[in-house]
Design brief:
This protein has 71 residues and is an alpha+beta fold. The protein has helices at 2-33, 65-70, and strands at 39-41, 48-50, 55-57, 60-62. β1 and β2 form a beta hairpin. Bound molecules: zinc ion (ZN).
Length: 71
C-alpha cells in the first residue's frame, strides 16, 4: 500500500512539475511583449506610437520616415 502511495506521489509530483512549468513560459512571453507596447511621442508631430514601431535617430523618436526626414 505504501509503495502505491509513493508511486502516486511521484506521478503527482512530475505532473505538477510540468503543469507549473507551462504558465512560467507563457508569462515570460507576455513579459517580453511588454517593452514593445510602450508608447513614445514623435518629436516632430507629437503622435504617439509603440516603441517597436517608432523610428529612433539620435536618441529621438519619430513616428514615420517622413517625420524623420522633416527634422
Ligand atoms: Zn511624426
Amino acid at each position: 500500500m505504501l509503495k502505491w502511495l509513493l508511486v502516486l506521489a511521484v506521478i503527482a509530483g512530475v505532473y505538477y512539475f510540468f503543469i507549473k512549468k507551462k504558465p512560467l513560459k507563457t508569462s515570460a512571453k507576455s513579459a517580453a511583449k511588454e517593452p514593445s507596447s510602450d508608447m513614445v511621442a514623435c518629436v516632430v508631430c507629437g503622435t504617439y506610437c509603440s516603441l517597436g514601431d517608432a523610428l529612433i535617430k539620435e536618441r529621438q523618436y519619430y513616428c514615420s520616415k517622413e517625420c524623420m526626414e522633416a527634422m
